[in-house]
Amino acid sequence: MTATGLSGRSVFLVEDEVMIRMMVADMLEELGYKVAAEAGDITEAMRLAQATEFDIAILDVNVNGKVISPVADVIKAKGCPFIFATGYGSSGLPEQYRDRPAIQKPFQLDALGKTIEAALRSG
């Protein structure tokens, strides 16, 4: 996939599975985005969501058995767009965020790029 006018933007990535987080970070870099911060648990994600500047967030819905809603709330309050990454389908999204974009795991580079671009454009 080629870089778009949206490349160069920064992404906050929350994913509890280390290998998946590394893979997604690599995909983001390949798409031309930079990873502003990464978190593997809710506590760290809350801290980073409040302290880090980023253009968009990718949030795993279930982080070590905990729902991502508190982190999504912080990001929403900051006015930043975010997308959910889930293996559970749209029914697995937190109820109050079922209108937000989601990408089904496992996802391909092209699908990730299109989902991020759409969220940034509408965001």
From TrEMBL:
InterPro entries: Bact_response_regulator (IPR050595), CheY-like_superfamily (IPR011006), Sig_transdc_resp-reg_receiver (IPR001789). SMART domains: REC (SM00448). SUPFAM superfamilies: CheY-like. It holds the Pfam family Response_reg. Residues 10-120 form the Response regulatory domain. It comes from the Bacteria. GO terms for biological process: phosphorelay signal transduction system. The keyword Phosphoprotein applies. Keywords: Phosphoprotein. The modification 4-aspartylphosphate is found at D60. Signal peptide: none annotated. The keyword Transcription does not apply. This is Response regulator. It comes from Bradyrhizobium cajani.
